[in-house]
TrEMBL record:
It is found in: Cell membrane. PANTHER family: ABC TRANSPORTER PERMEASE PROTEIN MG189-RELATED-RELATED, SN-GLYCEROL-3-PHOSPHATE TRANSPORT SYSTEM PERMEASE PROTEIN UGPE. Belongs to the binding-protein-dependent transport system permease family. It is a multi-pass membrane protein. It comes from Paenibacillus ferrarius. One of its GO terms (biological process) is transmembrane transport. The chain crosses the membrane at residues 16-38, 72-99, 111-130, 142-160, 189-208, 244-267. Pfam families: BPD_transp_1. Residues 73-267 form the ABC transmembrane type-1 domain. This is ABC transmembrane type-1 domain-containing protein. The keyword Transmembrane helix applies. It comes from the Bacteria. The lineage of its organism: Bacteria, Bacillati, Bacillota, Bacilli, Bacillales. SUPFAM superfamilies: MetI-like.
């Protein structure tokens, strides 16, 4: 018994050591970007240690004010929030339909939707989306661009369908007896119970859209006022005179990383718990 206890204790500590090492390796690039963002461009080019010889805090103020990063930050928040909200709304309705409704071709349609999760359609559908967005005038405002970005609902449908199935049909059957319509059962009964998985998927989708680069880049070609942070950060490579402005690029990168990093650190338990409710119970 004592040997078994010692082995379990050793394995527990070994697990923590491995996780700690992985966490440190993952954070090393972020730490480097953080300290390097306070260096001058000349010091970055000539090389040096991790800590700056002279701390240049003006990198952040220059990026935020003079290079219009305040607008890019606002655009990123709007784009990621609306895109995530639309994906959550469409995924919740689709998942409920697949979990509670029987119709011809349901199995085939479900397989096709989930199959999209394993196929990269981004490059294939980028030009058609851009053409439709231009024709419909969606590229004129950051509030309408997310309408053209609505795609890839396979993961949300899969998670919501599994979650709704785990609830059982008794509540729906009782609501039907009380005369509740199909849509009323969804909005009044099932949707409030979806709160945990909805919060989880919204956060995951928000992070994905926040880091989206190609789609916002293409959509902002004719309207620079709709650029997001990811587009603005990449453009900083050409801001220097004769050389890349690495100090501004790193400062802009930290501005784009910090919000997502903070959200994930604060809400990582909710993300893991919501995924478990949607996948394991289903």
């Amino acid at each position: 018994m004592k040997e078994d206890s010692k082995v379990k204790h050793l394995l527990k500590w070994l697990k923590y050591v491995i996780l700690s090492v992985v966490a440190i390796i993952t954070l090393i690039p972020v730490i480097y970007v953080l300290f390097y963002s306070f260096k001058s461009n000349q010091e970055l080019i000539t090389g040096g240690g991790l800590l700056p010889r002279k701390w240049v805090f003006s990198n952040y103020s220059e990026v935020w004010k003079e290079l219009n990063f305040s607008l890019y930050f606002y655009n990123s928040v709007v784009f990621a929030t609306i895109s995530s909200g639309l994906s959550v709304f469409m995924g919740a309705m689709s998942g409920y339909v697949f979990a509670r409704t029987q119709f011809p071709g349901k199995r085939l349609l479900s397989l096709l939707i989930i199959g999209v999760m394993f196929v990269s359609l981004g490059p294939m559908t980028l030009f058609p989306k851009f053409k439709l967005a231009v024709d419909w005038g969606l590229t004129d405002s950051i509030f309408t661009i997310p309408l053209a970005a609505l795609y890839g609902l396979g993961a949300s449908v899969f998670l919501y369908e599994g979650f709704v199935k785990s609830l059982g049909k008794e509540m729906d059957e009782a609501a039907i007896v009380d005369g509740a319509s199909y849509f009323k059962r969804f909005y009044r009964l099932t949707l409030p119970l979806m709160a945990p998985i909805t919060a989880t998927f919204f956060l995951l989708e928000f992070i994905a859209e926040w880091n989206n680069y190609i789609f916002p880049l293409v959509m902002s070609i004719g309207n620079p006022d709709t650029k997001t942070l990811t587009v603005g950060v990449v453009e900083l490579r050409n801001m220097g005179s004769g050389a890349a402005a690495w100090n501004l690029l790193l400062a802009g990168s930290m501005i784009s990383v910090i919000p997502v990093l903070v959200v994930f650190i604060v809400l990582n338990r909710q993300i893991v718990g919501g995924l478990a409710q949607g996948a394991v119970k289903g």
